[in-house]
Design goal:
Layout lengths: L10 H12 L6 H12 L10 E5 L10 E5 L4 E3 L9 H4 L1 E9 L31 H15 L11 E5 L8 H12 L1 E3 L30 H5 L7 H5 L3 E3 L6 E4 L18 H6 L2 E5 L2 H13 L5 H5 L4 E4 L11 H9 L25 E6 L2 E5 L13 E2 H14 L2 E3 L5 E3 L6 E5 L21 E2 L1 H8 L5 E6 L6 E5 L8 E5 L10 E8 L4 E9 L14 H14 L16 E6 L4
Parallel strand pairs: 3-23, 4-5, 5-8, 12-16, 16-18, 18-20
Antiparallel strand pairs: 1-2, 4-21, 6-7, 9-10, 11-12, 13-17, 14-15, 19-20, 21-22, 22-23
Length: 576
């Protein structure tokens, strides 16, 4: 793959720097940081180094359109060791990729959902989720157009998704996900092919109905009336697909009912594929159900998806059937879903039974990726890791590392060809406390985030752990006994909730005993504001972002701090 050193820096970066100088009348620290970023980058176009979506009303309450705010500068993080001067001129790119996470392709018309719980579980319903397929297509287009890492200039090696690719592990959601990334025709609709049958066309004032003015909280906040939005949302379109290979990691929404309830619930398939959709219950019942789900209590499924309440009859659809883990893997292995490759998107025949859905893959010469499965089918949204998988990971890291530390902190050296490792999972170190047994390996002990972090600190060749789940931008330095026993955890916000980011990650050798991991956030390739009468795919992707910003349950703090955005993460080169 092609890459550029600082000396190959083109006039594009110089032009960007000049533009920043013209547009910054005051020489404050932020402006200086932006100018410095432009001089260090090969190019900034199409990334949040250039511009970022912000509310047009400057934090005022109520509904706000979005506009382009100033880009975020590069923040150098020296938590693990200090960087050395002149490294920009010595740098060589070793790998570059893009992380997608928590895409949550959602069949919003499915009866096996509990949107009416959104006052108590905010993620139960989002006003923008009906536009998910076309919005993720805009994110794919952004990656295709950016094409290279902004600090190394290296052509992207691949894209990786770190779980929750689907929202409710339905076959139709899986098909939309695979087609969006691979390319092809999509009709983002289930049930009746001629009309939308979800809660946003129900006339129920618990939800924003874009075609009907109701006395709902969304309208009171200022959500607009957008006649024709739901018709546009189910209109067929053709996804261009990614131009580069992509790999897949499994998430809790890919293996359980709405990402929370345990597998194997008797009769659950009938709710998925049936014709009765509960869209409302009395507040007391809804509150009790919401509390039971959040606290992991025994949830009465008959009451959750049936029982008393407001019922909407929808068109049954067999494509809503929940898929098994094995079916998820086999769908990736199917020839019609190969797209830009690789075959299986990381999964192989060894994963086809759905029992062990973790695997290694080659990122670039000398750099290995490891995709892990931190989900458990015992219920609840958070995860953990089984002892069987942890033992496999330890053996894999030992085979690729000439030096590691044993459980007593003693240095072990043996003859082996060294590899650098980047790990990928859905859950984060602080969301791996769910030790419920996994139905796929009932006798396999489950281990939490602390145990997992302790293992990684034993291997200097582990550079970073990349994950999702929290819908939050957060970068954590895990500091070991020595810099060599430390690594970075890179957590990225979702593409369903605002700020709807993906992340470019570049690995570079500074040729001075240090490595740099550059992280750069990107947004979907869609305008920040459009006329509400527009119904092109780009316009719908724009509205997807705008509605997510204004969601009643939006947590704008998920954007993270400056040190969680565009960063240079320094660490020692374990290979010298």
């Amino acid at each position: 793959m092609a890459d550029l050193t600082r000396r190959a820096f083109t006039t594009a970066a110089g032009a960007a720097s000049a533009s920043l100088l013209l547009c910054t009348p005051t020489a404050n620290a932020f402006d200086r940081a932006l100018r410095r970023t432009a001089t260090r980058a090969v190019r900034t176009a199409g990334t949040t180094l250039e511009q970022v979506a912000v509310g047009a009303q400057n934090g005022q309450k109520g509904y706000s359109c979005l506009t382009a705010g100033p880009g975020w500068p590069l923040i150098v993080r020296e938590d693990l060791l200090e960087g050395k001067a002149g490294r920009d001129d010595r740098r060589t790119g070793l790998g570059a990729f893009v992380q997608f996470t928590d895409l949550h392709f959602t069949d919003t018309e499915s009866p096996a959902r509990f949107e009416y719980l959104h006052p108590f579980i905010g993620s139960a319903h989002r006003p923008q989720e009906v536009l998910g397929a076309v919005a993720t297509t805009a994110l794919v287009q952004r990656v295709n157009r950016v094409g290279t890492g902004p600090f190394t200039g290296r052509t992207f090696d691949f894209v990786v998704t770190t779980g929750d690719n689907t929202d409710n592990h339905e076959l139709i959601e899986l098909d939309w996900f695979l087609t969006t990334l691979n390319g092809g025709p999509i009709t983002p609709n289930s049930g009746d092919p001629k009309r939308y049958e979800g809660v946003q066309a129900s006339g129920n004032p618990a939800f924003w109905n874009p075609g009907t003015r109701l006395a709902d909280d969304y309208t009171k906040k200022g959500f607009p009336q957008v006649p024709g939005l739901l018709d546009a949302s189910i209109k067929p379109f053709t996804a261009p697909g990614l131009d580069l290979p992509w790999y897949c990691t499994f998430g809790n929404h890919d293996d359980s009912v709405v990402g929370t309830l345990p597998e194997g619930i008797p009769g659950i398939e009938g709710w998925y594929t049936g014709k009765y959709k509960i869209i409302g219950k009395d507040e007391s019942t809804a509150r009790k159900l919401g509390t039971a789900i959040r606290q992991g209590q025994n949830v009465p499924i008959g009451e959750l998806f049936g029982g008393s309440g407001t019922v909407r009859e929808v068109t049954p659809d067999a494509r809503r059937r929940p898929f098994s883990t094995a079916e998820f893997v086999r769908a990736h292995l199917a020839a019609e879903h190969t797209g830009p490759g690789p075959v299986g998107h990381g999964f192989t025949g060894a994963n086809a039974d759905g029992l062990d859905v973790y695997y290694p893959f080659r990122i670039a010469p000398g750099v290995t990726g490891i995709s892990l499965d931190t989900t458990t089918q015992g219920g609840l949204a958070d995860g953990s890791i089984g002892l069987r998988q942890l033992s496999w990971l330890e053996a894999t890291l030992k085979r690729g590392s000439s030096t590691y530390y044993d459980f007593f902190g003693r240095k072990v050296t043996h003859s082996v060809t060294d590899e650098l490792f980047l790990l990928f999972s859905h859950h984060t170190s602080d969301t791996m406390g769910n030790l419920l047994p996994d139905a796929r390996h009932l006798l396999d002990p489950r281990l939490g985030g602390d145990t997992f972090v302790a293992l990684l600190k034993r291997f200097p060749n582990v550079l970073a752990w990349v994950n999702g789940h929290t819908h939050l931008n957060k970068i954590t330095a895990h500091v070991g006994s020595t810099p060599a026993q430390s690594f970075w955890e890179i957590n990225t916000a979702s593409h369903i909730d605002f700020p709807q980011h993906a992340r470019i990650i570049e690995l570079a050798d500074n040729h001075d005993g240090t490595l740099s991991l550059f992280t750069t956030l990107i947004e979907a390739d869609a305008p920040y504001a459009v006329d509400y009468s527009a119904s092109t795919p780009e316009a719908l992707a724009s509205l997807y972002r705008e509605f997510s910003y204004n969601d009643l349950h939006a947590d704008l703090g998920r954007v993270g701090a400056p040190g969680d955005h565009n960063t240079e993460l320094l660490l020692p080169n374990p290979l010298g």
